[in-house]
């Protein structure tokens, strides 16, 4: 079975760990969000791709969900001693090496997809990890600054530095409209038996991937079950601050509203958490098959059970 | 008093420490060799400039004479895990930060001289440190490979990886003939009261600086005392493997031969070590004032005494 997964960072990565356990023989292609990518200290940092790669490759800091295990921060301390920031982005020494290798390869002319493949040759994540695009896409968030002036900041600045503490007026994946899907992305979707949307952020993770022209259409036209899992449980994001960016695109932070945001043109099935059982009827009324099951990825067993529910729903949809 | 010093790495940096002690009120300009510079992992590394900066700024690893004190090697270990080398060049985590800042600034369009000034704003070396040139100069060494084929390797590969263990057939500062002195270099020489050649490598350190068109001429024409100190003591280099590269340019590894290699057109005074007292007459016969004094930089006091001898000789020459 060929499964394509659209993934953001932490949630997507943990979901994929469950998918590998639930479907050990499946051929897995992950289309990773690169709208979070940022240039720091002249280095290209791809947080979502790295979180997937480190998580599946056994190098992740399990507790925080991103970055490397057993990490130190000597380089960052030295950069700060030079007065070079930002200090709010936590790049560790081991992590730096990944960005150094990536930047060197990009500088030598390799596209991001080739670089990602080279990095994965070390990590062996057990999936084919593709960036959504080799072209630069950068998610910007419109906020009001301290003087009340509207301004755009990089998504990482909004998310990491500001911790989504101010309202997001708009979320714009800058460059997405000109971006082309990376080599293999459309082919993987066309050849997929199932497409899954993990409980990643529907705006800045999966939404950004879908904003690359051709990807949404390829999924809608693939003629295979497309099943998603709600990142909202009990009217709040399971993790992160998805409600802040949902508000910016005019979508309520509910399991039902997110499903309807994706829409029945894209989504065939949707899993909501057991606490949101009353959303099922509303989602089904929108033409999307829905079921309420436990959706908290508390451990690998719980995550694997979630994935099994998603795959079961895909088979129901197919039948 | 305005003093200009042409400096390589370790020897030059230690000499400068003595100079600061011997002439605390002098205005010191250091013209640093950049022929050792190398791109590693996509980053611009300037070993000689950094050795001077770290040594005078209190950040040097005193024992080895280069690199940072209290250093770790996490980034390098990770790069090796990616299969990315070279492994023979010892870049530590703290040191990496310097190269990251430098590379980022160069990428933003700043010339190396401006970058060096920015880095020195942190280290406050107490001297004005100028790269010999903002243009790329790279010292290559012609050697025979294992199959007996003549090939050119980067100086660092010859020096660090091969530890000068094979004969050097030629030493070529690639790009030097097209390089321009960095801003301030010729001005500093023109305004100097004294020019000093520390016991740095006469071929790959001071020789490379002198290979930048205009620098040798400016020193020869400055009309001020030019005094050097022999890096060869008792027919062997005090440190490093200067004899190997001297052979490549047809110069004997003796205190006298090095003075005559610089020549009386450039050099007014020359200090040899006490053990080389019999070289004095030969050097003076070549038109260069010479004296035998202790030249081992065993500690700051010994180094300061050496510098005082050099400054005293400069005043004799002037008179």
- Overall strand count of chain A: 14
Q: How many domains would you count in the coordinates of chain A?
A: 1
**Oligomeric state as shown:** homodimer
What gap, in angstroms, lies between the N and C termini of chain A?
16 Å
Which CATH first-tier class of chain A would you pick?
Alpha Beta
Overall 3D geometry of chain A? globular
- Give unreliable regions of chain A as ranges: none
- Beta-strand residue fraction of chain A: 15-25%
Mean pLDDT of chain A: 96
Which superfamily, in CATH terms, is the homologous superfamily of chain A?
Answer: CofD-like domains
Give the biggest beta sheet of chain A. Answer: 7 strands, parallel
Largest interface: A-B, 28 and 26 residues
Please tell me the CATH architecture of chain A by its name: 3-Layer(aba) Sandwich
- Element order, helices and strands of chain A? EHEEEHHHHEEEHEHEHHEEEHHEHEH
Characterization of this structure:
Chains A, B: Catalyzes the transfer of the phosphoenolpyruvate moiety from enoylpyruvoyl-2-diphospho-5'-guanosine (EPPG) to 7,8-didemethyl-8-hydroxy-5-deazariboflavin (FO) with the formation of dehydro coenzyme F420-0 and GMP. Chains A, B: It is an enzyme of class 2 (transferase). By secondary structure, chain A is an alpha/beta fold. The first copy, chain A, has 13 helices and 14 strands. The first copy, chain A, has a single domain, classed as CofD-like domains (Rossmann fold, 3-Layer(aba) Sandwich), CATH 3.40.50. In chain A, strands 5-2-1-9-10-13-14 form a 7-stranded parallel sheet, with helices on both faces. In chain A, strands 7-6-8 form a 3-stranded antiparallel sheet. The mean pLDDT of chain A is 96.
């Amino acid at each position: 079975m060929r499964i394509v997964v659209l993934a953001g960072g932490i949630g997507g990565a943990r979901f994929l760990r469950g998918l590998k356990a639930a479907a050990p023989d499946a051929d897995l292609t992950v289309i990773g969000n690169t709208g979070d990518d940022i240039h720091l200290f002249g280095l290209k940092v791809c947080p979502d791709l790295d979180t997937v790669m480190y998580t599946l490759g056994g190098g992740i800091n399990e507790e925080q969900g991103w970055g490397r295990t057993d990490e130190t921060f000597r380089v960052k301390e030295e950069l700060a001693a030079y007065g070079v920031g930002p200090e709010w982005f936590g790049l560790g020494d081991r992590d730096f090496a990944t960005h150094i290798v990536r930047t060197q390869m990009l500088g030598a002319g390799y596209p991001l997809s080739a670089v990602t493949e080279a990095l994965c040759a070390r990590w062996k994540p057990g999936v084919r990890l593709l960036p959504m695009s080799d072209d630069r896409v950068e998610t910007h968030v419109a906020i009001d600054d301290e003087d009340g002036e509207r301004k755009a900041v990089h998504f990482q600045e909004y998310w990491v530095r500001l911790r989504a503490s101010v309202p997001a007026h708009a979320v714009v994946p800058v460059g997405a409209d000109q971006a082309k899907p990376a080599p293999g992305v459309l082919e993987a979707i066309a050849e997929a038996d199932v497409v899954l949307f993990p409980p990643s952020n529907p705006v800045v993770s999966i939404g950004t991937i879908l904003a690359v022209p051709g990807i949404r259409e390829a999924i809608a036209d693939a003629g295979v079950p497309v099943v998603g899992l709600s990142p909202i449980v009990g009217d709040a994001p399971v993790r992160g601050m998805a409600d802040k960016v949902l508000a910016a695109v005019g979508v309520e932070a509910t399991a039902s509203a997110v499903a309807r945001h994706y829409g029945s043109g894209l989504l065939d099935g949707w899993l909501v958490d057991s606490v949101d059982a009353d959303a099922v009827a509303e989602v089904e009324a929108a033409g999307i098959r829905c079921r309420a099951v436990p959706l908290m990825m508390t451990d690998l067993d719980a995550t694997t059970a979630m994935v099994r529910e998603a795959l079961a729903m895909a088979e129901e949809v197919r039948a």
